[in-house]
Hints:
The chain is an alpha/beta fold. The protein has one domain (3-228): Vaccinia Virus protein VP39 (Rossmann fold, 3-Layer(aba) Sandwich), CATH 3.40.50. It contains 10 helices and 7 strands. The protein has helices at 3-8, 17-32, 53-57, 70-80, 91-95, 116-129, 148-162, 165-176, 179-187, 194-203, and strands at residues 41-45, 62-66, 86-89, 102-108, 130-141, 206-211, 222-228. The chain has a 7-stranded mixed beta sheet. Helix 4 links the parallel strand 2 and strand 3 (86-89). Helix 7 packs antiparallel against helix 8. The chain is globular and about 45 Å long. It binds S-adenosylmethionine. Residues 3-4, 7, 27, 46-48, 67-69, 72, 91, 108-110, 113-114, 118 line the site of S-adenosylmethionine (SAM).
Amino acid sequence: MDWISFWDGSHAIYTSERHKQVHYARIAADIARFVPHPQARVLDYGCGEALGAQALAQACGQLTLSDAAPGVRQGLKARVAGNPRIHVLSPEEVAALPEGSFDLIVANSLLQYLSPQVRDDLMATWRRLLAPGGTLLVADVIPPHVSAVRDALALLRFGGAEGFLGSAVLGLVRTVFSPYRKLRADLGLSQYSEAAMLDVLAKAGFTARRVRPNVGHNQERMAFTANRAP
Ligand SMILES: C[S@@+](CC[C@H](N)C(=O)[O-])C[C@H]1O[C@@H](n2cnc3c(N)ncnc32)[C@H](O)[C@@H]1O
């Protein structure tokens, strides 16, 4: 199994419906802070189930959702059908869009699942798709010192604050025996120091900086904004 098949199947990453709802509401609100103006064209790449898409779409002109998992895209299409501001595209359809199609491109909690080759290919695509003055937001990047245990502690704090502590505890116990843990052990996750991420972005032709807070609940992970280098 690879990561895309994992996300395409039924998984228990969200420990309860409440966890999933507050996760997606939080990231939609966090991403909205980066929307430069109400007509902005936004791409959420590796968007997952994007339960906050309707709310995010209200903060911008057009929202394009893209995910490599076909089943995830099918679910998204069913959910956003009828909202003329939201489009769901496959990665191949995104790659075929004209240069300068977006004012903001978001990759949240995606980089850890990408090999260096896929990551660099995607960075080149995103750079081409950014309009002049546009911004790439790469967020929820995992630094090398942040282990599964520290992720678990951050989830428990989030659960405590948002009213799903019980399901978070149960969910973490389930995770120990889950395919996610096995895949994380077998395939690993790509982790980056701040300097390494800035270097990747610079080599891809961006001028980048770290921004705080991170998108989402886990403030041990990092967010970066990047603009096309002149
Ligand atoms: C951890 S989820 C993140 C979902 C959402 N962005 C969030 O922050 O909750 C990672 C998502 O990235 C997608 N993904 C993984 N590799 C991808 C790739 N090469 N291109 C597009 N999407 C990819 C997976 O299918 C999955 O839905």
